């Protein structure tokens, strides 16, 4: 029986970079040979979610949402568009513990293993730490350094904050950083007051967003005081209120995310054909990476 990975993401008609992380991670996994077939599909771009499963030739499909939190898109939009016989109760999740549900699409004869979003997987904690290493250029970063894990936050969906707080707690439990805080754009505690929440002179800020976009490249840098106009860029680090702010940009652009995707499929029973990570080396990538 052949196995396929279908990586699903939001996409955007307005932001050409929105699909870049999904494309990059799909290319990485495709090159690893972990699956017979690797495809991407989007809510707001082509190829669309609506026809995605019809384009897959494999009998067994592992669907992984490239989203940060459980909620409307992962529990309603994606299953509806893929025509899956799925109920969010099948995940039996508390908001951060979705695993997978095996279900059938109504229009094609395939077995679909619908996985929880990458953002709530435990391996994402490692990606946050890697992001801090990447932006500072220090593989041992932590001692005397504060870490802010930043999410969008919304009063409409409590799970949006849960994922951010969950990973902040997990990083804090490692006792690697001097301080760890969960901050948000649209709810308290807010990221625009970032320096009020830390005593450490150096603060690494890692936003839990999937792709580069308006929020990560303009809203957050401007709110933190890194720049008056995010379109003109910002220095890394930037000096703000007596602190050096190391702004890492969208976590979804970190190459280690490909391994989180594979972890999701392995948890659902995929035979990826390799135990080796796809991106085991610390990368040196620009810090301008929603």
Automatic annotation (TrEMBL):
GO MF terms, alphabetically ordered: lyase activity; metal ion binding
Region Disordered, annotated ranges: 268-290
InterPro entries associated with the record: CbiX-like (IPR002762), Sirohydro_Cobaltochel/CbiX (IPR050963)
Signal peptide limits: none
GO biological process: cobalamin biosynthetic process
UniProt key word Lyase: yes
Keywords: Cobalamin biosynthesis, Cobalt, Lyase, Metal-binding
PANTHER family: SIROHYDROCHLORIN FERROCHELATASE, CHLOROPLASTIC
NCBIfam families: PRK02395.1-1
Protein name: Sirohydrochlorin cobaltochelatase
Annotated source species: Haloplanus aerogenes
């Amino acid at each position: 029986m052949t196995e396929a990975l279908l990586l699903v993401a939001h996409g955007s008609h307005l932001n050409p970079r929105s699909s870049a992380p999904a494309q990059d991670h799909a290319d990485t996994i495709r090159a690893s040979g972990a699956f017979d077939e690797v495809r991407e599909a989007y809510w707001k771009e082509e190829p669309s979610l609506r026809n995605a499963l019809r384009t897959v030739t494999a009998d067994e499909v592992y669907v992984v949402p490239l989203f940060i939190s459980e909620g409307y898109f992962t529990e309603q939009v994606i299953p509806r568009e893929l025509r899956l016989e799925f109920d969010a109760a099948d995940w039996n999740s508390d908001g951060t513990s979705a695993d997978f549900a095996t279900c059938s699409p109504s229009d094609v004869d395939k077995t679909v293993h619908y996985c929880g979003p990458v953002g709530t997987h435990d391996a994402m904690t490692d990606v946050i730490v890697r992001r801090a290493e990447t932006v500072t250029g220090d593989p041992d970063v932590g001692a005397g350094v504060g870490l802010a894990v930043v999410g969008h936050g919304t009063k409409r969906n409590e799970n949006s904050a849960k994922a951010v707080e969950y990973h902040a707690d997990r990083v804090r439990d490692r006792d690697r950083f001097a301080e760890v805080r969960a901050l948000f754009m649209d709810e308290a505690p807010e990221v625009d007051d970032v320096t009020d929440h830390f005593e450490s002179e150096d603060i690494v800020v890692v936003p839990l967003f999937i792709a580069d976009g308006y929020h990560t490249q303009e809203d957050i840098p401007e709110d933190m005081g890194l720049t008056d106009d995010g379109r003109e860029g910002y220095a890394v680090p930037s000096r703000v209120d007596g602190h050096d702010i190391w702004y890492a940009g969208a976590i979804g652009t970190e190459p280690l995310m490909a391994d989180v995707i594979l972890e999701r499929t392995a948890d659902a029973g995929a035979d990826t054909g390799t135990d080796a990570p796809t991106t085991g080396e610390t990368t040196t990538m620009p810090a301008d990476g929603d």
